[in-house]
Amino acid sequence: MPPPQNASVITIQPLATLSPPCSSRTWQSTPHPTLPVIATACSDRTVRVYSLTSFTLLHSITGGHKRSIRAVSWKPGVKGQSVLATGSFDASAGIWRRDERGLAEDTQRERAGDWDGDEEGEDDDYQFSCILDGHESEIKSLSWSPSGQYLATCSRDKSVWIWEELEDDNFETIAVLQEHEGDVKCVAWHPEEDLLASASYDDTVRLYKEDADDWVQVAMIDGHKKTVWWVEFEGSEMSARDFRAHREGLSEQRAHHVEQLERSGPRLATSSDDCSVRIWRRKPREGSAQTSSRLGMPNIIRSVAIDEEWFQETILPQQHERAIYSLSWSRRSGMIASAGSDGKILVYKERWKNVMPNGVKADGTVDHSDSDAMEGVENASLTEWVVVAELFSAHDVFEINHVCWAKRSDKGRRSEDEEVIVSTGDDGEVKVWVLEER
Amino acid sequence: MSAILSADDLNDFISPGVACIKPIETLPEDKSNAYEVTTEDKVAASQPPPPAQISLTDCLACSGCVTSAEAVLVSLQSHTEVLTTLDTHRSLHTPWLAHSGTNGTKHACNGTHNGANGHHCGEGKLFVASVSPHTRASLAAVFSISEAEAGNMIAQLLSGPLGLKNGGAHGSDFTWVIDTNVVREACLVAAANEVVTALSPEASSTPLTAGSEGAIDTTPKKPILTSACPGWICYAEKTHPFLLPHLSRLKSPQALTGTLIKSVLSQRYNIPPSQIWHLAIMPCFDKKLEASRSELTSAAWLPHHSSSQDPVRDVDCVITARELLHLAAARNIAFSSLPRTPLPSSQRTPFPDPKIDAFLFPPTRRKNKDPIAGSSGGYLYHILQTYQAQHPGSSISVSRGRNADVVEYSLVRNSETIVKMARFYGFRNIQNLVRRLKPAKISKMPGARVGRSRKPGANGAAGGEGVKEYAYVEVMACPGGCTNGGGQVKVTEVEEVRAAEGIKAVNGDVVVARPGPKEQKEWLGRVDEAYFSGSGSDSEEEKVDRDGDWGMKDVDAPTTNGSSVPGADVVSGISRTHIWNLLSHWSDTTGVEIPKLLYTSYRKVESDVGKKKQSDVERVAGLASSLGGGW
Amino acid sequence: MEPDKDNANPTILNASDLPSRRRESSVKQREDGGTGLFDHLIPHYNYLSDPFERPVSASDSDDDSVEDIDEQEIYDLISSISDPEHPLSLGSLAVVNLPDIRILPPSSPHSTISTVVVEITPTITHCSLATVIGLGVRVRLEQALPPRFRVDVRIKKGTHSTDEAVNKQLGDKERVAAALENGTLMGVLRKMLSTCE
After folding, report:
1. Chain C: which residues have CB within 8 Å of chain B?
2. For helices C183-193 and C130-144, what crossing angle results, to 10°?
């Protein structure tokens, strides 16, 4: 196959492999919200915390879980310490803490080049602080809400649980959501609202909100043909950072589109066993909260139905040949990276499509995509996603279980907000990649 | 939990041979039309199947396929089962008179066997039904009638001249329709007694011997947890055996009704338990599981039960409100057209024992008037009121927890808290209760490095002290309690049911195309309203209670509850002396000790059942094939 | 436990009638020092050169071995697996059949990943052990084949009442991984695979 005609204007170049690697499958790597470290969930029942500055192992969290650790999530907004949640095939989730002063020292020492892993004392380490059990079978994913107030976990037992930390280590189950008809693969929180999404073996994605004490399903997304492996929301206020940032000279139509997108709020991306990545968008509600608050009107009418309507905005170019296990939506650039069983990493970018005003494309074909779903929202196909980079065999012949964007923190960093892609594979390796403009 | 099991889903759940490790072909052949599933292709080919072997223990034990196995059990108790039984057996209305030969209903039966489960062809049965108030409330809300009227209609269906009597092979019908609220009064008094006794200083903890946790003769540990909800019991036995010592030993009203009827009639009137067919109409599918428990059979109370005798269940079949409507429809009876008036008392068959007759069929209906007591029978509130009666001048304070299904009650006098109790409804809240009752050891991760600053056992136990302080916790698996049981008519079904009955939406009902959680809540509100309703056609009913003011922070000591002297006999309209007299009478009549009649036991359900006899392959087959695919 | 067998009287093929290649297999079980079955499943590929040092998209000369593995080879690897219920091999029970094995070459010159598709035929349409047999086949192949092979094990269409559900389960990497951490399941798999050379 010739390189995609979208012309990979960008190449994905290796920067580092985190060292030492795990000797067995690694599942997921999650960057710390503030510090230059990344935690990797390993099938050998450990979590490895690596430095994104030196790309070396800082800590190995061992003991505790009886089976593979499948997922890790850092609690956001914690002062003075780092809090990590681990989800395991042993059906339990663990909460681990570490004093952050020690971590700052690590970073200093490391920068000074005299880091010695053997020196690590007990105080330095991540300490087990509590266990959350209740799931009947393997935990597949977990995620803290952006405020840090809630932790969502999901499992093969088909349920999604929401936990609230009332005080340190005192967690309460505030919801057990049993809407899915299969294995729940992934949970993700909306960046601005307490809105939770879950993806499942039953091929659907479901969204939940709290309604007077009770978390209830507010939307069901049905479109993928096979297991949905990953779900992730777009970052907050991305219109200021991605292709929408340049507003000068936008046609009225495009300006309207940007406004519609803003009313919808952050979109949702999903990846599936059906080899597709799809983008979903919330249908803005008439007189919705966002609108009325912007107009300074008191929102006295509590939404009669809290149900939301999400529709498929687009399917990304389909260049994966096998299950897509993971995707990541850059909080900086709005680009999406995806990876999966075929060992490829793809990077997609959204841009304005060159469309004639009447919906006729430049090449003369008429675009009817999603016209049914689009009532009230004018032409959704004003934009298109193109593959800007494609990398084969990123982990040699092995499958890639997870891919994510992280802030670049090594010495070679070219700008304050430069990002790297971190991929986690069946070979036990976690690799860091940079994007090079051609 | 409970919502998982629904008759409508059964066909999805049961896929024999794939769904259940107990080979489905061991189910009795004659039951095969009780559930419409494709049976394994070799069933037909195989030699005659052995008798039914699936027991509750077999099924619950393989944690992987619990739901499907439960579904099998549940499917065996259905409205079709009711119809089949009515069609197979004549009803014996007064079999205790048959010995003198004065009763014509004892007909000749040539005793041919059809080989099905030992049922005798055409053998007469005494049909007894017990109806929960929640079921009446559900139907009342559907048909916009009062709970009392719904009760009358159910009685008309089961026993009345326009009801089941009109059809079927033998025109069989039910001799008695008992309100479980009546028997619940005995449960409430016994529950209060159990808690007061267990927590009294004298009841210094009798050391539990290994394996006796949850046994009938042990005293439950504080906090004592309600045992009336079968979904909760099933969950505790399966996943949290450390809870068993906390469970109240008391039978549920459903079970106690069964024991009462069958023990008295068999011990005093020579009607074998197998000849009494007891149907319970309940708000919840899990009640079917409860009815299947081996602890709740004649083996538990028959004084001379020998192992050669087949134990007979105290409750033979459980159906829900929806299934009751199916039952009526199957006999071409429009439920809504049944008279809303009570059956004339002249046509009533009295229970042969006058004392028990007076208890079972009181002249006035029992009501659930006080929303503060909750929608699940009011165990906690009754126990609390019993304490209050012992502490003159005390008052009950109620505070809502983090959601409507967590409510804390305390009895205070001046600044002293006499006793604290709480209500935890719904699976998520049960999780929090369970976690706080969990022994510290279990909640630690072995091998994990624990921070020095953190006391072992402190994890998850913060706030745990609060839970351990409760004397009693009313636990129900369903959010909203029993009125929201899985077998109740759901908001999504109301229109369908009404349409089937030819009823238009009633005043104020907005037909919502796709009812959501909000509509469900509003609907539950209406069911609750019916459950608590004091109004209705029969306004002459006794006012048992003063009005409860839901949401009020402090409730004054009730003044209508007799004299507020220590140990007041009448609590919430129920006389303790009266109930204990009745229980003694029951015990005397049957020759069975009261505890054997009142209490039951629980046991840890192993996750690998029959380890000894099961091969790895079978266990793997279980793992491999449970619902949703397994492993 | 005879009476509980799903299929007490399966059709058995004569071993000498089964297709076989009487020569040394070109694929060997990897020797990575692991002791348990599970260890074999952990991919170790230390001898591979650093992928960063070679052209990412090149089809190397290493890949000449691609041609060495054919359907017969795959068949030989899995036909000797024992049935979990019968003391017979999957080959002799015709659960695995040579015509139902396909090897799909890499879909692009940039890729080195080949796909092995094996369709299994359960002895009866309700065989509750279908997922276990499928798992055994998948595990055997993942163990014996180089990691550049993706293994897709499916139930042959129309031979099982819930074939779609079983296929989905067998294709789910995460569930397979979790299943292999289940001691009981692994005990049975180990026994099934003990008859493989």
Report:
1. 1, 4, 6-7, 84-85, 124-126, 128-132, 135, 161-162, 165-166, 168-169, 175, 178-179, 182, 184-185, 187-188, 191
2. 70
What tokens were used for C71? Answer: 């359907």
Residue A368's φ and ψ, nearest 5 degrees, are -105, 5
What CATH number should be reported for the domain holding residue C78?
3.30.300.130
**Where in C94-196 does DSSP place strands (E)?**
96-104, 114-120, 149-155
Q: How many domains does chain B have?
A: 3
**Residues B126, B240 within the same domain:** no
- Pure H helices in A247-376: 252-264, 289-294
Question: In this model, does residue B548 exceed pLDDT 70?
Answer: no
Kindly report, residue by residue over B358-369, the tens digit of the pLDDT. Answer: 999 998 777 766
The pair of structure tokens assigned to B249 is 């030993």
Q: Quote the distance between the C-alpha of residue B490 and its chain's center.
A: 19
The helix/strand count (H/E) of chain C reads as 6, 3
- State the residue for tokens 């126990």: B383
What is the end-to-end Cα distance of chain A in Å, rounded?
20
**What residue type is B144 in one-letter code?**
S
pLDDT > 60? residue A81: yes
Residue B104 lies in a domain: no
How far apart (Å, rounded) are the C-alpha atoms in residues C175 and A183? 9
Cβ–Cβ under 8 Å, residues C91 and C74: no
| Total domains in the fold of chain C | 1
The helix or strand, by DSSP H or E, that contains position A420, with its residue range, turns out to be: strand A419-425
Partner residues linked to A361 by β-bridges: A355
Report the C-alpha gap between B575 and B577 in whole angstroms: 5
Interface A–B counts its CB contacts (< 8 A) at 106
CA atoms of A418 and A409, how far apart (whole Å): 8
Give B329-357 pLDDT, tens digit per residue. Answer: 999 999 999 999 999 988 889 999 999 99
What lies within 8 Å, CB to CB, of A247 at 6+ separation is A255, A258
Sign of CA dihedral C56, C61, C64, C65: negative
Residue B115 lies in a domain: no
The whole-angstrom distance between residue A56's C-alpha and the CA centroid of its chain comes to 24
B277 and B387 part of one domain: no
CB atoms within 10 A of CB C69: 20
Q: How far is CA B403 from the centre of its chain?
A: 25
Q: Is the pLDDT of residue B535 over 70?
A: no
Any residues with CB less than 8 A from the CB of B225 and at least 6 apart, and which?
Answer: B232, B236, B243, B246, B247, B248, B472, B473, B475
Domains of chain A in sequence order: 10-437 (2.130.10.10)
Chain A residues in contact with B4 (beta carbon < 8 A): 178
Among B483, B475, B470, B484, residue whose Cα is nearest residue B406 = B475
Nearest CA in chain A to C39: A24
Q: Do residue B631 and residue C169 have CB atoms under 8 angstroms apart?
A: yes
Q: Do A393 and C108 touch (CB under 8 A)?
A: no
* Cross-chain residue pair B629–C131, CB shorter than 8 Å: yes
Question: Per-residue pLDDT averaged across A256-285, rounded?
Answer: 94
Residue A222 phi/psi, 5° resolution?
-130, 110
**B360 and B381: one domain?**
no
A156 neighbourhood in chain C, CB within 8 Å:
175, 178
**What are the DSSP calls for C41-55, one per residue?**
HS---TTSPPGGGS-
Task: Write the Ramachandran bin of B453: left for phi over 0, alpha for psi from -120 to 50, otherwise beta.
Answer: alpha
